[in-house]
Amino acid sequence: MIEVRPGGRRRIDRVLAPGYASEPEALSLSTLRERRDEAAQEETDLSYLRRLLHARIDIVKAEQLRRSSDTPGDEDVVAQLTAILSDNALGPATGSGRHQTLEPTRAGEYRRAAEALVGDANLSDVVSLGDDRLTETLESYRQQEESVSQRRREVQAVVDTFNAEIAGRYAHGTASVDELLDSQRSATGSTDEGGRA
């Protein structure tokens, strides 16, 4: 389960802290953008973990289906991996209605965490698990997916809060596109000249 630790140092702890998005109107435009971008990166990472868990759920369910079919020996789940993964983990993200342009920053960490949920069970030996262990594995993945989905929805609400405030400022003329372009040009110029922004 993904816990949020009050005062914690992880990004999710900051993004879901009570005061992080509570008064967006009091924040400067640059702070709004920084916080929105930080929350958007957390959403991307949670989306990646969610898709990773969906793929593992699908693999376990495919093995359960294979065992319950009339001809369980025809094709084991390992042989079906390409089809299973292309239907879920490698396809476009679903569920949020958002186009994400960011890459996950903690992909390796999340893969290890998903594998640790079921101890020494991994994608290649799921066929060797007993029926009871397979059921436990599926339940473990489902519980983790529910936790990740809940946190993802909470982070999406934070992103939406900041986006609404930024859009409102543009709509009411308190922020301008020219200022944004100038700040982007300045940041690019600093990077070009000094090597870092």
TrEMBL record:
Q: Which domain of life is it from?
A: Bacteria
Q: Where is this region: Disordered?
A: 176-197
Pfam families (UniProt xref): RsiG
InterPro entries xref list: RsiG-like, RsiG-like_dom
Residue ranges annotated for the RsiG-like domain, each copy included: 20-85, 121-182
- Name of the protein this chain belongs to: RsiG-like domain-containing protein
Q: What lineage does the source organism belong to? A: Bacteria, Bacillati, Actinomycetota, Actinomycetes, Pseudonocardiales
